[in-house]
Amino acid sequence: MTISKNIIYIAVLILSLSIGLQSQDLPDAPSRLVTDQVALLSAQQVRSLERKLVAFSDTNSTQIAIFITKDLQGYDIVDFSQRVAQKWGVGQKKYDNGAIIVLVPKTAETKGEVNIDVGYGLEPLIPDITAKQIIENEMIPHFKNNDYFGGLDAGTDVMMSLAAGQFTAETYKKRTEGGGGIVGFFVPLIILIIVISMINRGRSRHASYTRRGGSGLWTALILGSMLSGSHRGSWGNFSGGSGGFGGGGGGGFG
After folding, report:
1. pLDDT tens per residue across span 59-92
2. What is the average per-residue pLDDT within 16-32?
3. 3-state secondary structure string across 161-181
4. What is the dihedral of CA 243, 245, 248, 251, to 10 degrees?
5. Among 55, 130, 63, 56, which Cα is nearest to 97's?
């Protein structure tokens, strides 16, 4: 019986030491919200993101951190993100309202990876499925063009808006069903305004044609076409908060 207890004690001790050593391998908490270990972004881009995220944290109390690295230290990106977020203490411990974006840039030898990890206190506002949508819709289109700053800037803009309650996850999903992110929601609206303005000018020049209902028909056709086009596709079948880009396989691009 004593031998059995000793074996259990030794096993627990070894496990604890192993976990402790793994934790020591993780990077220490930085003094900033944007950490770029690989100099992927310019100094100006880092400052721009930092100012934005610090201002948001000061006004909203929600912290969003960005960590750019090339070394996941043997973890998969989801596990690594969670461990780093816990070690760094992103967000307020009382509310668990932090989020971290971990980005591994694409290289000639490896694919790129990105993950959004959200604290439990923030998850009702940014659920896993929405984190996935943000990655696929806001970040990866920029990353494909090597515009890493643009992807991080667009992604954090949406995360901040969701965390601040400016719109809901469901509203964001509906806005992006046609693809192209929030921009895809506003561009058709701008085009619609321009088209209506042109039609109204044509109406004043060709009053007789307008009386026959010609411009009204064209307005209806254009409106119907634009509204139907803005709802093509759906991001609702994604789950989780991570996405891959670069290289082959699911979620990748060459």
Report:
1. 998 999 999 999 999 999 999 999 999 999 998 8
2. 66
3. HHHCCCCCHHHHHHHCCCCCC
4. 40
5. 63
The residues that bridge with 117 in the sheet, in sequence order, are: 100
Best CA proximity match to 78, nearest among 246, 254, 239, 235: 239
Does residue 160 sit in the same domain as residue 189?
no
Is the predicted pLDDT of residue 114 greater than 90, yes or no?
Answer: yes
Let me know whether 81 and 52 are in one domain: yes
Question: Does residue 157 share a domain with residue 65?
Answer: yes
Looking at this protein, which amino acid is placed at residue 124?
A: P
Distance, in Å, from the CA atom of 123 to the CA atom of 2, rounded to the nearest integer, reads 46
Sign of the Cα pseudo-torsion (215, 218, 220, 223, in order) = negative
What are the distances in angstroms from CA 193 to CA 14, 167, 217? 67, 23, 16
Range of the domain at 64: 29-127+148-167
- Please report how many Cα atoms fall inside a 13 Å half-sphere around the Cα of residue 174, on the Cβ side: 6
SS3 at position 108: coil
The answer to whether residues 64 and 190 belong to one domain is no
